[in-house]
Design goal:
Length: about 140
């Protein structure tokens, strides 16, 4: 995982260059997501449960949002930057995350481990872009 200032979200694929979009790395097709999202609040909660490093992408989610929860509407779409997304499904932690981190990251994240999104419209997203729900 690496932090980026911007990324291109590609409709029907995910983030350009990401393992899900490219079909590379460690993941299972049944568990794949175009884009994964978690809230900073969920990461703070996980860090209070079990002291694990969560600030360098160890949580393995594509996007971290602040100021709102990942309690997204299951029947609506929203924009982040120039891209449009929709909620797809919850993203439970996988056992592989523990192999990568050497900690019990899956237990720390628990049921607050993020959500999967579908990319509806291609567009660039940048650090600091707001999540804006469609009317």
């Amino acid at each position: 995982m690496q932090s980026l200032e911007s990324a291109l979200a590609v409709a029907g694929q995910g983030l350009a260059g990401d393992r899900y979009s490219e079909g590379t790395g460690h993941w299972h097709p049944v568990e794949s997501c175009e884009v994964t999202l978690i809230s900073e609040d969920d990461l703070d909660r996980a860090g209070r449960r079990i002291p694990v490093a969560l600030d360098r992408g160890e949580h393995r989610r594509n996007l971290v949002i602040t100021g709102i929860t990942t309690d997204l509407p299951e029947d609506g779409s929203f924009r982040i930057g120039e891209a449009r997304f929709e909620y797809w499904k919850p993203r439970p932690p996988c056992g592989y995350i523990n192999q990568v981190t050497g900690n019990n990251m899956a237990k720390a994240l628990g049921r607050n481990s993020g959500v999967c999104l579908r990319v509806l419209e291609t567009g660039k997203i940048r650090v600091g872009d707001s999540l804006i729900r469609d009317p």
